[in-house]
């Protein structure tokens, strides 16, 4: 049975109230194969999505907690990235704390100093919000464990993803590995709109060592927030067909991941990436995040596949950079035939 919001409310009184605590956590980023695009209510997805966890691109977070003298209904905190105070990030974190307060009422009892750093470079375009909110949610659950009587491992796993989702939708898929599904799908057991799950089937060995190399067509942190794009889906002319596709695609993708069907995995992964960008190009107002370099790399990948049969494909997130996905065993060939022949810097080994 899936958990409900009520299950994540805390009924017990806390039995332990420390004055000072230090808690650390690490959380990975992820890349969606079938994309989350469009949302409703409080961070609920329009459709289910499925992702690979990027184990080597992580946010590492340490929080220093001090019990507050006077209780307020707002969480008192400061956020530091690479040891520097980052006021720009604080409104989003404040919004997150507010959204999770009913489910973690103990957070207002402490003053929070949050120190984060990412193992991936700023230039990578990987959004740190997914790994960042997942890391912070892990800390909140760790704190809950220290304050209240123990619950099941499943409760803690689902609640971590549930909290992360309230920070950023894709963060719900950054709390476990190697694959996560977020969003209720009638044909996939245990799935929920409230949190992401690790599917209960074994994924084929070929996908366990899959690689993601990011071609940096555009350097720098992601500029356009996905929130605008999600909102445009509410009135999008293709909303219903997109929903239908996403439900079909998630089911098909789970089949390919189980059976190791790389050929269909490639077709579907690329179709999803292009559909995501097609939705951006056909929303009102429309916008275009791909750059000439994005198209150039896409063609190179497709031509290489045609000429050599190598099972390499691409996906895109909400930006111009290209994620190149391939099985571990063709790494050396790709180095020679693709990565050494392009003018863009590439970050390797991010799964
Ligand atoms: C294109 O999770 O960044 O990467 O919930 O508003 O924080 P918010 O959006 P966000 O959207 C991610 C969109 C995507 C597709 C995906 O990761 O599934």
Describe the structure.
With about 350 residues, the chain is an alpha+beta fold. About 35% of the residues lie in helices and about 20% in strands. The protein folds into 2 domains: about 190 residues, Ribosomal Protein S5, domain 2, CATH 3.30.230.10; about 140 residues, 2-Layer Sandwich (Alpha-Beta Plaits). Strands 1, 4, 5, 6, 7, 8 and 9 form a 7-stranded mixed beta sheet that branches. The protein has a 4-stranded antiparallel beta sheet with strand order 11-12-10-13. Strands 2-3 form a two-stranded antiparallel sheet. A hairpin with a 3-residue loop joins β2 and β3. The protein binds ligand DP6. The site of ligand DP6 has 15 residues, from α5.
Net shape: globular
Q: What are the secondary-structure elements, in order, as H or E?
A: EEEEEEHEHHEEHEHHHHEEHE
Low-confidence stretches: none
Termini separation comes to 31 Å
Largest sheet: 7 strands, mixed
What is the CA-based Rg, rounded? 20 Å
Number of H- or I-type helical stretches: 9
The helix fraction, in percent, is 25-40%
Number of strands: 13
- CATH architecture field of the largest domain: 2-Layer Sandwich
Mean pLDDT: 94
CATH topology of the largest domain, by name, is Ribosomal Protein S5, domain 2
Structural class: alpha+beta
For the record, the count of structural domains works out to: 2
What small-molecule ligands were found?
ligand DP6
User: Strand percentage, roughly?
Assistant: 15-25%
Q: What is the C-level CATH assignment of the largest domain?
A: Alpha Beta
